[in-house]
Structures are given as structure tokens and as C-alpha cells.
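Support request, please re-run this one:
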Amino acid sequence: MKKLLLTILLFNISVSADIDIGEDFAPGDIVSSEVFNNKFGKIKKSIGVMTDDDLIGSWECTIYATQNHGWGEEYFTVEGGGNGALNNPDIEVLTLYSRSATVTFTEINQEPSLQSPKQWTVSQSRVFTWPSHDYTEGFYMLVNDSLHLAHLNDQGEYSRSQFQLKLLGPNKFKLNNTICEKNS
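Re-run finished. Output below.
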């Protein structure tokens, strides 16, 4: 049993460096169910499926893009609200741009987002939606490992975007090329 526990803990720690499960057990330690369940609860939250409750709140998100993506370099310059470029002077195609913003997920009611979509806002455009869109608010629905966003387009109709969501830790997730960390 101890070998199984150690194997599980080591595997999960290597999957997510952001998890802190406390001190290791020593041979012969008597462990209370509370301590044991606490450790497994942290592991489960780091590798499981994200829920609406996990998502609600404020997140600092950064999108990463290459110049060949056609997103417009002006949006990634410091003057344009971006973080600037990480240039590779020898290999231009490896230039990487980033742009950060605060994304907030708000609960409208107690129903799951699958049954009753929740709201999202972002402090600046082209971070959380497709880079060609300037949307800063809308509704979302969380389905397993997919985040579905709805926002009003320029014609006054709802458009939808879908992102694959990957949980990277209890307070960190990835959406395609965007990394989000929960604000305290």
C-alpha cells in the first residue's frame, strides 16, 4: 500500500509542479484519515476536471503567439497593451509575442453552466477570445475539458468560441495558447 501511495504521489507531483502536498510520509508513520484525505484532495484538484466552482473568480491570463499567426504585432507591443516580444535575432520565426489581461468568471445563479451559462469579462481584448476579435464580455459554458464562450459580434448576434481546457494545478489552467493563474 505504501509503495502504491508513493508511486501515485510521485507521478502526480511530476505532472504538476505547482502542487504542494506537504511533508512526505516516513516508514512506520501512522497517518490519520484527515491528513491522507487532504493530500489526495490536493492531488485530485490538480489533475481532475475543472468545475464551475473552480473557475469562478479572477484570473491573470497571458496569451502567447508567433508573428506568423497574423494577429497583428501592434496588439503585442507594450504600447498596444501587450507584453512585447521575446525576439530571437538569429531565427525570426521563433519570435514569440505575449499579451496579458485579467479574466473574471461570474456566477449568475447556482445552476451548472451547462444548464445556465455564466458570465465572463476580460480587462482587454485579444487575450481570451480569438485574437481577431475585440470582445471583452459574454457568457460561458463549461463542458468536461472544453470551455465554450458566447459573445455578441459586430452584427448583434452571438458568436461562439471553443477552447480545450487543461488543468495545470489547483490554481492554474491552459486554454490553447493562453495560460491563466488564479488571483488571490
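Strands lie at 57-66, 84-86, 96-106, 118-122, 137-143, 146-152, 158-169, 172-175, 178-182. Residues 33-47 form the longest helix (15 residues).
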